[in-house]
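B., you asked whether I could sanity-check this one before it goes into the benchmark set. Here's the sequence:
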Amino acid sequence: MNETSSPTDQDTDRRHTGESQSDHAFRIMEQKIVCCELEPGELFTEKQVSVVIGFGRTPTREAIQKLSYGMLLHITPRSGLTIAPVKYHDTVQVMQVRILLEKLLVELAVSRSSSFEKRRFTKFSEDMHQFAKEPDKLEVAQLDDELNRFVADTAGHDVAARHSLPLHTLTRRLGYLDVRFRGPQSLIRSAKGHAELCEFLAEGDIIGAHSALDKLYELNLEVLEALIEVLPQKYTI
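And here's what the prediction gave me:
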């Protein structure tokens, strides 16, 4: 496992982003799960997680609770927590809920976008097109997360955003695992699909944006079905 950041580095980063300790702990732990530094099926105690991410008990516990809602880990009283394995049925259910919330957020974002937001969506599209040419699994995941949060902020629906954002992490982990075990082909298709989505958002085209989300949903389902066949058994138990 990688070394954790020093408290000084974390405090500086938090001042720059305006994050609380809890939010920062969540972001670090989420990234470690997405990149499989914390591997599917792996068992930890809360204290071990605290050491890995470099935070105290309260922000660590709050991060764990938030990640458990997004079904990225399972908490067992008196036993610790397990990084969620890749389960077909569970993942499909998450994806089904996620797309419903995404369509609401996208519709609201389109209706509330100013010229500034539309320019940002155009820039997201350009960046995704660039990643489709030169795919980088970590940077695509980070840009996808940034896009999700920007859509949520633009939509201005706190309840939908609060329930939607944790569910995105599960799909980002799928993308990372897919590149690791099957290659970058689906990552390239995903980057192109997100670029298309952002183009529709910039144009204020709700129907087009919903169609782009449907295509990304089908791609994620295709990736899931293929991954289940090639992942190590310890990742799926």
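One thing to flag: The longest strand covers residues 73-76. Otherwise nothing jumped out at me.
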